[in-house]
Amino acid sequence: MMTIVLAIVIGAAFGFVLDRIGATNPNWIGRMLNLTNLHLMKTILLAIGVASVLTFGGQMLGLVDVGHMSVKTAYVGVFIGGLMLGLGWAMSGFCPGTGVCALAVGRIDALFFVAGGLLGAAAYMLSYPVWKDLGVLEGDKITLGAIPGADYPAAFPDLQGDLAGLAIGAAFIVIAFILPRRFSRKKAPAGTQPAE
Amino acid sequence: MVLNWKYGGLALGLVFFLAVLLVKPIGVSTQFVILDGILWDMQNPDIVTQADDGAYTSTNAYLAKSDGKYAKAVANPVNYSFIFVGAMMLGALISSILRNSVPKGERMVPAIWRANYGGNVLKRWLVAFAGGFIVLYGARLAGGCTSGHMMSGMSQTAISGYIFALGAFLAAFPTALYMFKEEG
């Protein structure tokens, strides 16, 4: 019961924030990916940095349970699937999470995205044995460094994983600050700027 | 109005952190499979079955993998991850009501699309549908999407997260640069 309450609270907070940062808006995604307005990229980089610093900082202080981590397997299909997701993401301006949220805020094109997504997921369910036989789904759950208390193999075993996580988190935050909002000198169209 | 990136990034980062602190890292794309499984099992109840020892399995190899983890979620939709996605929709809806909802024309065809390809709704909807197909097929092949691999993955220093992000942006930047020359 408690887990369902948490699902509702954290899920609603996530959907709320995705909407507030412009991620449910395909215009903001499109302008980030065609490199005309990197505001959303700065938001995402800062978010990854903040989450990373809090997670690993909390682990080092003993406040965050290492057992709550869930590292996914690295295999060839991750890269192929990533390429596919990138293509469809740029075409549509939606990814799975922002697509369902865009549908919820009343975007009709997001309804078609979600319908296509359900069909795409079904197609994968049927074709899964083919990929499995190709051997591109084999791999390990690897992290960058060795994380104390977790038994994930490390890409760099001599690297202390929690320190590496802190450092990389800090690097994401620095990049978020350095990255310009726009590359082009052309002024942004009216109504495409965030609140200060 | 969109939040300034400093506040927005902090808020989004806190949500990802809270999820790890309290339960587990956020992920979304699996739930498309679970909903497919639920619909499929409604059509044909033999798809997901439960053995006498309580273990779930499926005639579909993907639902049956990892000791029937997905089959179990299909049989029990009131679980954390599935409810989570429903709650995301609720949260986004509340936010949009509070900030003034999306204008009608924009709901049909977003501005950036209109600036490049005009207001033909069918064209936009077709591309959104095809995009959705490719995104979810790719996400399932990769074992996660933007939230699970890119955000949750990279904030845990998972190598899979970096590989995924590399692939996604390698395809997304050229595609968007080619398709959306007008900013909109």
Task: Give a summary of the structure in a few sentences.
Chain B: Belongs to the TsuA/YedE (TC 9.B.102) family. Chain A is mainly alpha-helical.
Detailed description of the structure:
Chain A: InterPro entries: Sulf_transp_TsuA/YedE. The complex is a heterodimer of chains A (196) and B (184). By secondary structure, chain A is mainly alpha-helical. Chain A has helices spanning 2-20, 26-33, 39-60, 76-92, 96-104, 108-134, 161-178, and strands spanning 143-146, 154-160. In chain A, α2 packs across α4, α3 runs antiparallel to α7 (161-178) and α5 runs antiparallel to α6. Chain A is built from seven helices and two strands, in the order ααααααββα. Chain B is globular. A two-stranded antiparallel ribbon of chain B has the order 1-2. Chain B has helices at 5-22, 30-43, 61-75, 80-98, 104-108, 111-117, 121-142, 146-155, 159-179, and strands at residues 48-50, 56-58. Chain B folds into two domains: 1-102, no CATH class; 109-184, no CATH class. The model of chain B has no long low-confidence stretch (mean pLDDT 96). The longest helix of chain B has 22 residues, at 121-142. With 184 residues, chain B is mostly helical. Chains A and B meet through α1, α2, α3, α4 and α5 of A and α1, α2, α3, α4 and α5 of B.
Q: What best-fitting shape of chain B do the alpha-carbon axes yield? A: globular
Strand content of chain A: 5-15%
Largest sheet of chain A: 2 strands, parallel
SS summary, helix count of chain B: 9
The greatest interface here is: A-B, 132 and 126 residues
Helical/strand content category of chain A: mainly alpha
End-to-end distance of chain B, in Å?
Answer: 17 Å
The average pLDDT score of chain B comes to 96
The count of strands of chain B amounts to 2
Shape of chain A: globular
Q: Uncertain segments of chain A of ≥5 residues (pLDDT<50)?
A: none
Transmembrane segments (chain A): 6-23, 44-64, 76-103, 110-131, 163-179
Keywords (chain A): Membrane, Transmembrane, Transmembrane helix
InterPro entries (chain A): Sulf_transp_TsuA/YedE (IPR007272)
Pfam families (chain A): Sulf_transp (PF04143)
